[in-house]
Amino acid sequence: MTNVKYVYSEDLLKYRFSDSHPFNQMRLKLTTDLLIDLGVLKSEHLIQPRIATDEELELVHEPSYIEAIKKAGNGDLPIEEYDKYGLNSEDTPQFVNMHENSARVVGGTLNAVDAVMSGEAKRACHLGGGLHHGFKGKASGFCIYNDSAVAIQYLQSKYKQRVLYIDTDAHHGDGVQWSFYTNEDVMNYSIHETGRYLFPGTGAITERGDGKGFGRTVNIPLDAYTEDESYIDVFKETVEAVCKAYKPDIILSVNGVDIHYLDPLTHLSCTLNTLYQIPYIVKNLADEYCDGKVIMIGGGGYNIWRVVPRAWSHVWFALNDLDTPKGNIPQTWLDKYQSSAPFPLPKTWIDEKDDYMEIPRKTEITEKNNNTKLRILEWYK
């Protein structure tokens, strides 16, 4: 298992807007400790995340924006400039040492890239990454720097790779899309809840790229309340068709777990059954088309107790060809965190679905999603 690397340091928890903000990297520690208590994550797997250099950040971000983030993190940015850089919203408020702690997220993803490209690792993951909403010169949607976009450009510039970017977060990865909208050497695939009712409101099926990049952007907006069967059917068929058509050198995937029905910020109705399957589908595509080269990063997921640790564990399981464990969650983990949790922690790997509501419009939603799938398959088969 040592040929798979896991980027982690508790310093990643310093990417934190406030105690009440929904983006809480405590979910990263919960997941990592769960994997350690299971005995599947050991010290030889770990890579400490580095802080990305300004030159690396400038692969995507404007120098003036990087300077503004440095000033904001030190309290030196004039308040009247906050709006210009997206720092005046509840989503991305200023916090202390913002630059260093944001650049560490980017550096961690670049660590994972270097581990795979140097041959140190066959596969790698950085669950602290996946900040796909950041723009070239503006923060957005909990994201200061866009580690996904920087990693894609880094793979292009340093390693000359044709990248397939797969984003299964419930929110459309707008920052990544607009960074590569005219780029023919990046295939940007995003399956997400329709932007009709959800931030950021983009990601329509008609957004397909421009110029040389036309056809290199693939958006699959799913209807609100999409459930497991429809999600997996649409995802599996379309992502396989896109991968086969594009023939990438490497896959970078964002594994947001906010498609779960218990996520407080979204409106999809998937369960852990779907979240357990997604990383295996991506890993198998990498095995078939990229000689196994794949980097998996984090993304959204705001039910940090009942959903994220069990779902994100499967990113590591998939990368290591492990199945879902049988039986109970380790008692050591439950004992460690039950006193901090606002309700009883799950004791097994099975999704309880105690409060899962059957979807009245299931047939209509499935049909609408199927029509979207057929349009994509028409383009890429």
TrEMBL record:
Short name of one Pfam family: Hist_deacetyl
Domain Histone deacetylase: 21-317
Coiled-coil portions: none
InterPro entries, per database record: AcuC, HDACs, His_deacetylse_dom, His_deacetylse_dom_sf, Ureohydrolase_dom_sf
Pathway recorded for this protein: Ketone degradation; acetoin degradation
Keyword tags: Acetoin catabolism
Protein role: Role in growth on acetoin or butanediol. Involved in the breakdown of these compounds used as a carbon source.
Family, similarity comment: Belongs to the histone deacetylase family.
Name of the protein in its database record: Acetoin utilization protein AcuC
Species, as recorded: Mammaliicoccus lentus
Upper lineage: Bacteria, Bacillati, Bacillota, Bacilli, Bacillales
